[in-house]
């Protein structure tokens, strides 16, 4: 396996990269869907609907389609009646888990008062 060389970013290239990443993840439900699929979990469409009760069926389908086309989610259709469709994260989608864990840790460290920002 080839060793990956760390890329050096400028302020501009870093800002552009972050913007591209946010475009892939934008949408109210994408990160919620990803959290349900982390850990190699594979879920049927109906299971995701039950796990995220406030999302509409139309919106869930739309978000999953976008995530699939962006390479974050893979979709498996089992040829049976009724059709069975399962979703899971791709290895690239799953690689986002540590970054999202770091984001949660960062949020937990939020200062309890606004006075910390004044220092």
UniProtKB/TrEMBL annotation:
<dbReference type="InterPro" id="IPR002577">
    <property type="entry name" value="HTH_HxlR"/>
</dbReference>
<dbReference type="InterPro" id="IPR036390">
    <property type="entry name" value="WH_DNA-bd_sf"/>
</dbReference>
<keyword id="KW-0805">Transcription regulation</keyword>
<dbReference type="InterPro" id="IPR036388">
    <property type="entry name" value="WH-like_DNA-bd_sf"/>
</dbReference>
<keyword id="KW-0804">Transcription</keyword>
<dbReference type="Pfam" id="PF01638">
    <property type="entry name" value="HxlR"/>
</dbReference>
<protein>
    <submittedName>
        <fullName>DNA-binding HxlR family transcriptional regulator</fullName>
    </submittedName>
</protein>
<keyword id="KW-0238">DNA-binding</keyword>
<dbReference type="GO" id="GO:0003677">
    <property type="term" value="F:DNA binding"/>
</dbReference>
<feature type="domain" description="HTH hxlR-type">
    <location>
        <begin position="15"/>
        <end position="115"/>
    </location>
</feature>
């Amino acid at each position: 396996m080839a060793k990956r060389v760390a890329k050096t970013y400028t302020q501009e290239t870093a800002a552009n990269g972050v913007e591209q990443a946010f475009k892939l993840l934008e949408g109210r439900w994408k990160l919620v869907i990803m959290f349900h699929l982390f850990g190699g979990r594979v879920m049927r469409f109906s299971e995701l609907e039950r796990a995220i009760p406030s999302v509409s069926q139309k919106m869930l389908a739309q978000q999953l389609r976008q995530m699939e086309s962006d390479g974050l989610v893979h979709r498996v259709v089992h040829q049976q009646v009724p059709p069975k469709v399962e979703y899971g994260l791709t290895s690239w989608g799953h690689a986002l888990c540590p970054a999202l864990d770091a984001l949660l840790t960062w949020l937990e460290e939020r200062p309890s008062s606004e006075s910390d920002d004044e220092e």
